[in-house]
Design a protein that fits this description.
The complex is a heterodimer of chains A (330) and B (253). Chain A is mostly helical and 330 residues long. Chain A has 13 helices and 2 strands; from the N terminus they run αααββαααααααααα. Chain A has a two-stranded antiparallel sheet. Chain B has a 6-stranded mixed beta sheet with strand order 6-7-8-3-9-10, sandwiched between helices. Chain B has a 4-stranded antiparallel beta sheet with strand order 2-1-4-5, covered by helices on one side. In chain B, helix 3 packs across helix 4 and helix 3 runs parallel beside helix 6. Classes of the chains: A mainly alpha (330), B alpha/beta (253).
């Protein structure tokens, strides 16, 4: 039964939204629309702040702030200050790429191990363990990296640089275990559970009929796994994009193991720095200088942009895939 | 003397403790079609999955009895060997969605190394698609994904994929249940000519008595997990010895 009620201007406005036809719908809309919009506004405001705070350094140095390698902080003399973010940007991208390259096989095999090769009885507890890995605060990883991983990586990296220094990756002899490689490995360990969760979810959604089709052609278990993994390629890409996002955004754990030196080197056995760790380590002092805070905000802007670019690329890839496999898979 | 391609002896299957098949025995002579008919839920699909050991994948399934493929017990072979020699086509078309039409057919031969060159592989793919009566419709678009095909075409693609591994036995689980009548006829024709010209042995599961009689040389009537009646199709159809069979033919079961 519908009651005729006189409506105020707000109600009339709300009714113009598609699908709103009752008082309940109106209330629902009034309650949820602002909540969703607020979050969007916060993100836009964040972006706005980062852009606004980056303006001083960009108007002084232009794009050099992103492409220069000099980092000169001078107290009391703004004209002598000069900030180039390139080593940090380079370090962020480099460590995250290493992390993703390591996380790719690890997460795929973790997902497959849990879904296919783990006895039913163990599956629950192993899943719990990987969930725990994902939920562990990053500072815990950082401390583990600082106290255990870095010292243990040192002999391996030394050996590599002694025996394979002709490969640019190992050209520099490490002065300690605090290197780009260590950061990459730590980031890989941290981001693998995230990628694995996405991949696993997709793997478990593969219809039984497809699985049976593969088996009934006489494929062995491993061959079936290979066929099925081909089917969830977009989810693997999505999982790795997530891993990359997590890696490039990670701060504390990285700054504890990367050595924090502003250098650009192809050698993973050298120390480096990332944008996030630069911000974390420098922001406390930024008040003493005229332009440093602005430079750090510009760095944040770069991380924003890279994260966005990776996401857009992943979405683009998945769209391409969907066009190819219209409507059938995921 | 013609041997038996398939010899099922006293097959008993339970799923999660529930008895599905209770001592099923029948034999399929080489190069014939045996239709296994019976009402829904009587264990026909389970029987097929027991024959090619797909039930191994189900931890709740228990299978007893013996199944011989050309005289050799499936329990003495690796499961993947059993499944290659007795491939299966399912009720719902299930091509791999991420592979092209060509790759769907080529995946089996590639797994088993059946082709030594691209040319040989092309030939197998063409042969399988022709045998499944799909070649003329797809020969100019082998790179398309299966999603561009109709349901009936997808089912014939599934058939071609199963044929491409050159099986001795083809297990068909109501392959026409979910396709339109035109495609159903095409699939039935493809099956008949496969048996006639390639000597493949077919086990065709269906719940439709008319189809069972139409496609088969031998009939097995399964009811309640047991074989109620079996024999040459014409004999069973014209002269059923069991009142249950008669009822089934009249559509009363």
């Amino acid at each position: 039964m519908t009651r005729r009620v006189s409506r105020g201007p707000l109600s009339r406005l709300l009714r113009r939204v598609r699908g709103v036809r009752s008082r309940d719908d109106e209330r629902f809309l009034l309650l949820h629309l602002p909540a969703g919009l607020t979050l969007l506004l916060v993100i836009l405001a964040m972006l706005g702040v980062f852009i606004a705070y980056s303006i001083p350094i960009i108007s002084r140095e232009g794009l050099h702030v992103f492409t220069d390698t000099t980092w000169r902080a001078v107290e009391g003399d703004p004209q002598a200050e000069w900030y180039g973010l390139l080593p940090a940007i380079y370090g962020s991208v480099y460590t995250s790429l290493i992390a993703v390259l390591i996380a790719a096989p690890l997460s795929v095999s973790l997902a497959v191990t849990l879904e296919e090769l783990t006895p039913r009885r163990l599956r629950g507890s192993l899943s719990l363990l990987t969930d725990l890995m994902a939920a562990t605060p990053t500072i815990i990883y950082g401390l583990w990296g600082l106290a255990f991983l870095a010292p243990h990586m040192y002999p391996i990296l030394s050996w590599l640089s002694n025996h394979a220094s002709w490969i640019p990756l190992f050209s520099k002899h490490p002065s300690s275990g605090y290197t780009i490689a260590t950061a990459g490995v730590l980031l890989a360990v941290m981001s693998t559970p995230f990628a694995a969760a996405v991949i696993r979810e997709a793997y478990s959604m593969i219809p039984l009929s497809i699985r049976e089709a593969a088996y009934s052609l006489g494929a062995t278990r491993l061959e079936v796994i290979r066929i099925l993994l081909g089917m969830i390629k977009p989810s693997i890409v999505a999982g790795l994009a997530l891993a990359f996002a997590r890696a490039i955004g990670e701060t504390v754990a990285v700054s504890l193991v990367i050595g924090n030196s502003m250098t650009i080197t192809p050698s993973v056995t050298d120390s480096g720095i990332t944008v996030s760790s630069l911000i974390a380590s420098q922001f406390g002092n930024a008040g003493f200088y005229h332009y440093m805070a602005s430079a750090l905000f510009a760095g944040g802007l770069v991380i924003f942009a890279i994260g966005l670019a990776v996401n857009v690329a992943a979405v683009w890839y998945m769209k391409k895939w969907e066009e190819k496999v219209v409507g059938v898979a995921s | 003397m013609t041997g038996y391609a398939l010899d099922v002896r006293d097959l008993r299957v339970t799923l999660a403790g529930k008895r599905i098949l209770d001592g099923v025995s029948f034999r399929c002579p080489e190069g014939t079609v045996t239709a296994v008919m019976g009402p829904s839920g009587t264990g026909k699909s389970t029987m097929l999955r027991a024959i090619n050991r797909l039930l191994d994948l189900n931890p709740e399934a228990r299978v007893e009895g013996d199944i011989l493929i050309r005289g050799r017990s499936v329990w003495d072979m690796e499961p993947y060997e059993v499944r290659r020699r007795a491939t299966m086509v399912f009720q719902d078309p299930n091509p791999f969605p991420h592979m092209s039409i060509y790759d769907n057919v080529a995946v089996g031969p590639r797994l088993h190394g059946l082709a030594r060159s691209k040319q040989e592989l092309d030939e197998i793919v063409r042969w399988a698609l022709e045998r499944a009566m799909l070649w003329d419709e797809v020969k100019d678009r082998l790179g398309d994904p299966p999603s561009k095909l109709s349901g009936g075409q997808r089912q014939r693609l599934s058939l071609a994929r199963a044929l491409a591994v050159k099986p001795e036995i083809l297990l068909l689980d109501e392959p026409t249940a979910n396709v339109d009548p035109v495609n159903a006829v095409k699939i039935e024709e493809a099956i008949r000519s496969l048996v006639r010209e390639e000597g493949i042995t077919v086990v065709f599961v269906t719940h439709m008595p008319s189809q069972a009689v139409r496609v088969s040389d031998y009939l097995v009537f399964l009811y309640g997990g047991r074989v109620v009646e079996q024999g040459p199709s014409r004999e069973v159809a014209l002269n059923p010895s069991n009142p249950l069979t008669e009822k089934f033919f009249r559509g009363e079961l």
